[in-house]
Each structure stands twice: as C-alpha cells, then as structure tokens.
Amino acid sequence: MAEAYIVEAVRTPVGRRGGGLSAVHPADLGAHALRALMDRTGVDPAAVEDVVLGCLDAVGPQAGDIARTSWLAAGLPEEVPGVTVDRQCGSGQQAVHFAAQAVLSGTQDLVVAGGVQNMSQIPIAYAARRATEPLGLAQGPFAGSRGWRERYGDRPVDQFHGAELIAHKWGITRGRMEEFALASHRRAVRAADEGRFDREIAPYGGMTADEGPRRDTTLERMAALEPVVSGGRLTAALSSQISDGAAVLLLAGERAVRDHGLTPRARIHHLSVRGEDPIRMLTAPIPATAYALKRAGMTLDDIDLVEINEAFASVVLAWIHETGADPGRVNVNGGAISLGHPLGASGARLMTTLLYELERTGGRYGLQVMCEGGGQANVTIIERL
C-alpha cells in the first residue's frame, strides 16, 4: 500500500492584527515559510511537483493564486506550479489532504502543502463587518440564491450566530467558556516559556514568537467584555483572534524518500472531510470525528494528542462533551483563542504544532479537526515515526 509521509513542517510566528507581520505582503509571508522549509529539508526545490496552499479572502494582495506567487517570491524554480484552495478555515488542512492524496495516488511524489493569510491586509471595513456583525442572508455570499433561500430560508448564515446556537444547545455558560479561554492562554504561555514552539517557528525579522497569548488576561477582564451579539454569550475573548501567518509542510511518497535520502517524521494514517448543518455551521467536527475514527478502526483512546481549532470556545467544549475526549490531551499548547487564527494558514499551523508535540512527548497518534464555513470539517490522523 502506498504511503504519504510528512518530512518537514515549519511556520512563521503568528502575528496579531496590526502587529509585527501586518505590513508584510502575503506573498512574502508565504515565501518566508517556503524558503525555510526547503532550507531545512535540503531537497532540490526543482524536484517539488506542486505547491498547494490554503487562503481565504483571495482579494487584493492575496489574489492571483497566492501559492504560485509565494513560491516565486521566495526565488524558487519557475517550473514548479502552485494552486490555492479554499475550504474556509480548514483550507490549510485541506491543502495537506490534497497533497497527501496526490502522493497516495502515485501521481506525484513530492508536494508542498500549507497555507498563508494576512488578515491585517483585508480591507478594514470588510474585516470589521465580518468580525463584529452577524451577516444576515441579504448581506452574505448567498444573497440572491433562490435555491439556498428555498432550502434554508432567511436564517442568519454567520459564525457568531452558529457559535451562539451551540452554546445554547449544549448549555455551555459564558463562565465555562471564559475558564476554557483562560486555560488556552495559560497553556500557550507555558508552551512558549518552555520553548515548545522554538523548533517549529522560522523567525521573521526580529519576530521570534507568537503575539497572541496574553499573560495578563483574567476571568475578571473577560467578564467585563460586551457580547458580540446582543443578548448572547460569546465575546471577543471567547473567539479566535484575527491574525497573520503562514505554515507549510513537505509531503513525500516512498520513492521520493528513497531518491532524496529523506527521513520521514510522520505518516498520514487517515484523512477525510464531512459536512453538516450549514446554519449551525460549526458542529461538523463532531460527526466528522466519529466518521474518521470508524474509518480508521480506532477510538479516541488510541489518540495521544488532539488539535481542534478554537474558532470559539463553545465549539471545542461541545466537541469534548459529545466525543468524551480527555481535555488533558486536547490543545495542550493552547489554540486559536490564544495563538490566533490566520484563516488559510491555521490548518497547516495546527498540523505543524501537532507533529512537533508528538515528537516532544513521544506520542504515536495525533488527530486534527477543524470546523469550517458551510458546516464542514476536515479530520487528519497522523502517526509519528
């Protein structure tokens, strides 16, 4: 049976909106991660057969196939193509899936996958509206679709609305979510202080660490924030941060490993993607995880570490409740609430962190799952080698 191996993984620090990476052109941000990846592997870049990067909001500086332009901006060979994918917040993870599928099929042997996003450079009015206001059907991307309206009516299609629905359905209080968010920051700060991210980060300029984790946050400060949606439970503190960053991985088949003298660090054990209710939107990780484990012939007891994207605190808490996962194995180094969520890059950032943490702890299997726009979720299970 063919195998797809992860040979190397690297990421930039994750910057806050308006922070240390905000002025960096997205192509240069992606280029930095790509150069670091190729330098670390020592592989002839001309041997790479494709570059697959995730990116959302492909407008302005992120338009024009950012995967291709990032590779070229890195000064890497023109004969290597690139393609940009959009599966919403899971785009970077989907890029890894596409690369792994190419390798598993035997049609390609050496593929770069990952994602890039500079959210600071999304037009301000657009970004602010998306970050703070529920989008009704009339304002959203489905406006004018008769088929959508006939199927789903005029219900709001918005992540904040979905996160609120989840909090109410599972009876998750604001206080419980604030405790979870505080734990995310504390885990991220501890991980940074212990140097757990040092090997996976390729510093950019003088920026060597993630800007998101807050050492001084408290439950009292969180409690003072106004809800994003009037009368709701979710606040900015319980949501993922608007961020900038890039992350990339090199995937290889057995022939490439042999021909280039590579040492695989992990094996793709399983990959799948499932869909669910697009209005509630963010609960797809629950059935997607069950589906993936069944297909893989595993249970969560077989999984040493889990990375689930902290789009909102309610998403992760509902997933833990339904799956029965051990919270002590979930997002052990913090998540998007503390580390940030550079949309198109997050899937690859989570995969990179998962790989390094499996190696640090000696764990065997890691599971990654992300909620995504449209009510979707990717699941990847990797085996450390």
From TrEMBL:
Top EC group: transferase
EC number: 2.3.1.9
Keyword list, A-Z: Acyltransferase, Transferase
The UniProt record lists the keyword Transferase: yes
MF terms in GO: acetyl-CoA C-acetyltransferase activity
Domain Thiolase N-terminal residue range list: 5-254
Residue ranges of every copy of the Thiolase C-terminal domain listed in the record: 263-384
Pfam families: Thiolase_C (PF02803), Thiolase_N (PF00108)
UniProt-listed InterPro entries: Thiolase (IPR002155), Thiolase-like (IPR016039), Thiolase_C (IPR020617), Thiolase_CS (IPR020613), Thiolase_N (IPR020616)
Superkingdom as given in the UniProt entry: Bacteria
Name of the protein described by the UniProt record: Acetyl-CoA C-acetyltransferase
Organism (species): Streptomyces triculaminicus
